[in-house]
Amino acid sequence: MNLIVVILFLAIVSLTLVITYFAAKRTQSTGDFYTAGGGLTGWQNGLAIAGDYLSAASFLGIAGAIALYGFDGFFYSIGFLIAYLVVMFLVAEPLRNLGKYTLADMINSRFDAKKVRAVAAISSITIVIFYMIAQLVGAGALIQLLFGIDYWIAVLIVGVMMTIYVLFGGMTATSWVQIIKAVLLMLGTVIIAFLVLMKFNFDIFQMFSEVKTVTSHGEAYLQPGLQYTVPLDTISLMLALVLGTAGLPHILMRFFTVKDAKTARSSVVTATWVVGIFYILTIFLGFGAAAFVGESNILQANPAGNMAAPLLAEALGGDLLMSFVAAVAFATILAVVAGLVLSGASAFAHDIYGQIIKKGKASDRQQMLAAKWASLGVSVFSILLSLFAQSLNVAFLVSLAFCVAASANLPVILYTIYWRRFNTTGAVTAMLSGLLTAIILVSMSPNVFALDGSAIFVGEPIFPLTNPALISVPVGFLGGFLGTILSKELDSARYAEVKVRANTGYRGN
Fold first, then answer.
1. Are 326 and 5 in contact (CB under 8 A)?
2. Rounded distance, CA 478 to CA 72, Å?
3. Is 70 left (phi over 0), alpha (psi -120 to 50) or beta?
4. Mind telling me which residue stretches traverse the membrane in this protein (predicted)?
5. How far apart are CA 380 and CA 205, in angstroms?
6. Helix %, strand %, coil % for the chain, to 5?
7. How many C-beta atoms surround the C-beta of residue 423 within 10 A?
8. Cβ of 90: how many Cβ atoms within 10 Å?
9. pLDDT tens, the chain, 509 aa long
10. Which H, E and C letters describe 22-56, residue by residue?
11. For a Cys-Cys bond, which of 115, 171, 272, 483 suits 84, CB 3.0-4.6 Å?
12. Residue 242 and residue 30: Cα distance in Å, rounded?
């Protein structure tokens, strides 16, 4: 670990702790803790959404995938980007108008049933745990590579930092950590993309022409089929990515941090621009790494290609740029895991403790204490799981989190907003059928069973697809449909009220 890396690392840690100190002074109520008092502006929340969404998997993983597999590596960029159109046009405004702190609040605005809130909370917690384990295990491995420290120390550093942000600064500190991370990430990406383009004489056509000659794949590098050889598997993965974002609890929670639906929409527009520009620039990062680092050097540093972006930064800008990229990767990890802790804690403390156990009668002080204890619990539980999961291949957990979000959460969100006949039974069956189908199919998939020992267990997988979204998403929608039409419950007056509120934000007396 060189001196520049240490200085930048300490600078980021110091800056985020100062932010947390000032945020802690402003976090006086439950609303401040969960949603920063709803006081963020559109551009602030847009940057925070981008900071929450652009994980280390996006920055390091996609750059490496494009460097090694060309067109196939870009699939993730396309899926993550298109996903925001679903969020913007179908979910953002109604969610802001109907909800308060969590996804369960939004669904409960129509059904007001404990069993619906409980299942929604369980679904959110499941997604957060899957996502968190993958992030922390990935964070430990990446920081181990970047800074040369032991895995368990790396996980503990990230774990302690995320706990401090959430415990003391709540959503305000988490949001500003995410905003700073988004700015640093875009700055680093733009600098590297500019240097890559300069190497190709600012001629994009020359770049596309030359990358075909620098990898072992030749012309096939710019065509689909190098990494994803099973078309159904590719379609299933894309379905999970495109539809899953609109059901991720930590992304949905961000729409409650602004004052109204108009600001929520403007924040999605800002986030879409930032996310869109970033994913387009990943082409330059990937192609640049293939051309100026080399396929063999990337594979030698990390078989998954995760070191492609840092190595490219070193090749183009020396130790200074490489250290900056390493610091950005660290900030990226911190921002994402802090958002996950907050969304998991809100499901425990607000939905299960506050609304179900205390029946909505907990005082603000009791709710704040519950939220902080839940944050501590989620953090400790995630850190322990991540320490024991070091040797497991957990990369599939991210796509599984997207799959569960698309299968369990999205159907109930869309039915709640747009289907008059939808009822309590339909809400419960939609979430349970989507959630259970996704988990059961994954437990029988090539991610868990493989004959060559590359998965968790050695054996023949029963389910052939690595991502079950192609099956579990339709099952989630079908479960909600059948549960609704097979029960007699119908409350048209409540739906009319919810529809007006979803479109206008009017809450009556």
1. yes
2. 31
3. left
4. 6-24, 45-68, 74-95, 116-143, 149-170, 182-202, 235-256, 268-293, 320-348, 369-388, 394-418, 430-449, 469-486
5. 50
6. 80, 0, 20
7. 25
8. 16
9. 677 777 888 888 888 888 888 888 888 888 888 888 888 899 999 999 888 888 776 777 788 889 988 888 888 788 888 887 888 788 888 888 887 788 888 888 888 788 999 999 999 999 998 888 888 887 787 777 667 788 888 888 888 888 888 888 888 888 998 898 899 989 999 999 999 999 999 999 999 988 888 888 888 888 887 877 788 888 998 899 899 988 898 888 888 888 888 888 889 889 989 988 998 999 999 999 999 999 889 888 877 777 888 889 989 988 888 888 888 887 888 888 888 888 888 888 888 988 889 888 888 888 888 888 998 998 899 889 888 877 666 667 788 889 999 999 999 999 999 999 999 999 999 999 999 999 999 999 888 888 877 777 888 889 999 889 999 999 999 999 999 999 988 888 888 888 888 877 766 55
10. HHHHHCCCHHHHHHHHHCECHHHHHHHHHHHHCCH
11. 272
12. 32
- 297's tokens: 């050097």
- Tokens 């704040």 label which residue? 368
The predicted model scores a pTM of 0.86
